[in-house]
């Protein structure tokens, strides 16, 4: 009788343990699904706010998830932090703080998912921004790393016109680099990074082919590059397009 009762008790305990284990698995599954839905929900809200130009609201939404491990959330937070820094109403001190904050979010996004094209793109953009606060040597020193990440982003997503445009900006910047910066570059690298206006033009046209009329600044730089190449007829064509571009953002107005 004692043995039988012990066995019955053991079976009952085993059954309870099994049910508890299964329940935990079930709840864990529900939690994962719920978390997944929550991330998708936040991303959907974030993309709507970004499309509406609600920079401050977007930052407030995403900064609540700064401890997330989701690369899609993190690169969007990096972008939102940077966009907030770019506003004319943001103080110089805040611009600096937000630039470094954006870089940390982009870095984390890249660590979480190396195959995410946007993580590479925003890491490169934010690394460039940080260089603005650390002097010309750091800025030039980071240049090759920045271009590598842009190129990796294009490899992962060849249709992303903005990244192609940014490679064009990189080329344009090095093509018009003043002599004293070239001298600094020569001390930092055995073979310093260089480019030409023809190479910049290639990327600006490539970006326009990927997504026609996608960005006022691409139109502006097509015009500026043609001016550098002494082709005033083509410069006028693209500068006119830039002038007539509907101004949705503060940057469009500046362009």
Automatic annotation (TrEMBL):
Q: What is one cellular component GO term in this UniProt entry? A: mitotic spindle pole
Can you tell which superkingdom this protein's organism belongs to? Eukaryota
Where in or outside the cell?
A: Cytoplasm, Cytoskeleton
> From the UniProt record, which GO molecular function terms apply?
microtubule binding
Main localization of the protein described in the UniProt heading? cytoplasm
Transport is among the record's keywords: no
Q: What's in the keyword line of the UniProt record?
A: Cytoplasm, Cytoskeleton, Repeat, TPR repeat
Entry's SUPFAM superfamilies? TPR-like
Q: Please tell me the species this chain comes from.
A: Pluvianellus socialis (Magellanic plover)
> What protein name does the entry list?
Regulator of microtubule dynamics protein 1
Mind telling me which InterPro entries this protein's record contains?
Answer: RMD1-3_a_helical_rpt, TPR-like_helical_dom_sf
Pfam families the record matches: RMD1-3 (PF21033)
- What family does the entry list? Belongs to the RMDN family.
What quaternary structure, including any partners, is listed in this protein's UniProt entry?
Answer: Interacts with microtubules.
């Amino acid at each position: 009788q004692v043995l039988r009762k012990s066995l019955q008790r053991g079976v009952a305990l085993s059954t309870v343990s099994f049910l508890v284990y299964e329940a935990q698995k079930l709840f864990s599954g529900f939690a994962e699904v719920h978390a997944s839905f929550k991330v998708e929900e936040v991303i959907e809200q974030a993309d709507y706010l970004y499309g509406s130009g609600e920079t401050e609201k977007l930052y407030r939404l995403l900064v609540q998830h700064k401890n997330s491990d989701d690369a899609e959330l993190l690169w969007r937070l990096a972008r939102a932090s940077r966009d907030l820094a770019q506003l004319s109403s943001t103080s110089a001190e805040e611009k600096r703080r937000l630039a470094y904050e954006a870089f940390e979010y982009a870095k984390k996004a890249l660590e979480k998912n190396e195959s995410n094209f946007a993580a590479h793109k925003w890491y490169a953009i934010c690394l460039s921004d940080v260089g603005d606060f650390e002097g010309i040597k750091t800025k030039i020193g980071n240049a090759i790393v920045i271009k590598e990440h842009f190129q990796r982003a294009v490899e992962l997503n060849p249709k992303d016109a903005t990244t192609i445009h940014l490679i064009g900006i990189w080329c344009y910047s090095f093509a018009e680099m003043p002599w004293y910066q070239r001298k600094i570059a020569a001390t930092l690298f055995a073979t310093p990074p260089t480019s030409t206006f023809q190479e910049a033009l290639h990327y600006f046209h490539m970006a326009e082919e990927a997504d026609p009329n996608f960005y006022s600044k691409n139109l502006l730089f097509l015009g500026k590059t043609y001016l550098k190449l002494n082709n005033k007829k083509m410069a006028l064509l693209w500068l006119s397009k830039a002038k007539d571009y509907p101004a949705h953002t503060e940057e469009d107005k500046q362009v």
